[in-house]
Amino acid sequence: MKTKMILLMTVAVMAAFISCNDLNRQVEDRLNELNNKAEHLDSLVNKELDKVKTLDSIIIREGNKLKNIDSIINNSSSKFDSIANDKIRTLKKLIN
């Protein structure tokens, strides 16, 4: 009877160890899956961040071009105003 009890307990303990090992392997597989998905997501986020940085660089470059064009327009406008004012003064002198 004692031998049967020891044998039964041994089988129960072995079954528990086998079950724990299987559960441990399942948990490890799930963790690996999660890790792979996290790495994939990290890669996607990095690619999108690179796109944002590229767009930001383009926006800055185009903004600088616009500032340059605005400066040229302002200079040209000042020159036109100066020429127009000179012509108006000349016309006023001729009229008076």
Describe the structure.
The chain is an all-alpha fold and 96 residues long. The protein has one domain. 98% of the residues lie in helices and 0% in strands. It is built from 1 helix and no strands. It is rod-shaped and about 140 Å long.
Considering the chains and any ligands shown, give keywords for the structure.
98% helix, 1 helix, single chain, 96 residues
CA radius of gyration is 41 Å
What percentage of residues falls in helices of 4 or more residues?
A: over 70%
Mean pLDDT, rounded to whole units?
88
N- to C-terminal distance: 138 Å
Shape: rod-shaped
Unreliable segments of 5+ consecutive residues: none
Beta strands, count: 0
Beta fraction: under 5%
- Tally of discrete structural domains: 1
The H/E string reads: H
User: Describe the biggest sheet?
Assistant: none
- Helix/sheet category: mainly alpha
Treating each run of at least 4 consecutive H or I residues as one helix, how many helices?
Answer: 1
Q: What topology emerges from the helices and strands here?
A:
Blueprint: H1 2-95
Summarize the structure.
With 96 residues, the protein is mainly alpha-helical. It has one helix spanning 2-95.
